[in-house]
Design goal:
The protein is an alpha/beta fold and 226 residues long. The protein contains 8 helices and 5 strands; from the N terminus they run E-H-E-H-H-E-H-H-E-H-H-E-H. It has helices spanning 20-33, 50-58, 64-88, 99-108, 113-119, 136-146, 165-186, 198-212; strands spanning 8-14, 38-42, 92-96, 128-133, 190-193. Strands 2-3-1-4-5 form a 5-stranded parallel sheet, sandwiched between helices. Helix 2 (50-58) runs antiparallel to helix 3 (64-88).
């Protein structure tokens, strides 16, 4: 382990519609409110890469390999500029999706899992990975209740699983779920039942965080600027 790293890394994973982003933000706001040193990072948010990703998706120009590599580039940029420096500075870093998103999505799209592990080999394994487990049909229902359509790549339409976006989404997400379950055993995820009430899920996550991380070491000193 890198002795320079004084912080703790928390990853939040799950299917689209699992509510993991809500839980990640609630954790962040909770720690921030208690005056802890905490930083938040989300998937596919690098300003350097985001534009290229958006154009590639819009033109449907991404093969499984280029799709994987462009997301890996986005992650590497955020990891080197944000995540690792904040860990070295002694912050709790919460990531809304981490390398396991790539492992699950890209392997379902046909990329070799061992190749993916090697591609992301520079990244630290999180201290805690919360996996918000939810059946794909419920995830689909949640998404359609909040908006009128499911996005092309979100539904795995590029894989020709079905001409119906809803059906394609269910098939695609079910396959991703199977990979997540396999990864959860390998990387010892902390599984959260995403069918439960939001407050129950959050309470569970906070208790797990308190059990596994010495939060007191991340308390900001009085008079220290953010």
């Amino acid at each position: 382990m890198d002795k320079e790293v004084k912080g703790s890394l928390i990853a939040v994973e799950g299917l689209d519609g699992s509510g993991k982003s809500t839980q990640a933000h609630l954790l962040y706001e909770w720690l921030l409110g208690l005056n802890y040193r905490v930083f938040f990072s989300e998937w596919n948010s690098s300003l350097l890469v985001k534009g290229a990703t958006k154009k590639g998706k819009k033109r449907l120009a991404l093969t499984p390999t280029t799709f994987s590599l462009i997301h890996a580039t986005d992650f590497a940029d955020r990891y080197e500029r944000q995540i690792l420096p904040m860990l070295k500075a002694g912050y709790i870093v919460i990531c809304d999706r981490y390398i396991f998103t790539a492992f699950a999505r890209d392997s379902v799209r046909g990329c070799n899992l061992e190749w993916l592990k090697s591609l992301y080999g520079f990244a630290r394994v999180p201290d805690i990975t919360f996996f918000y487990k939810l059946p794909s049909n419920i995830a689909c229902e949640r998404i359609l209740s909040s908006r009128s359509n499911i996005k092309f790549f979100e539904a795995g339409m590029d894989l020709n699983l079905s001409s119906d976006p809803v059906e394609s989404f269910k098939i695609f997400q079910e396959r991703i779920l199977k990979v997540y379950i396999s990864l959860s055993k390998l990387y010892h995820f902390t599984t959260v039942d995403a069918t439960k009430d939001i407050h129950i899920q959050q309470e569970f996550a906070r208790k797990e965080l308190e059990k596994k991380i010495e939060l007191g070491t991340f308390k900001k000193k009085s008079g220290v600027m953010k």
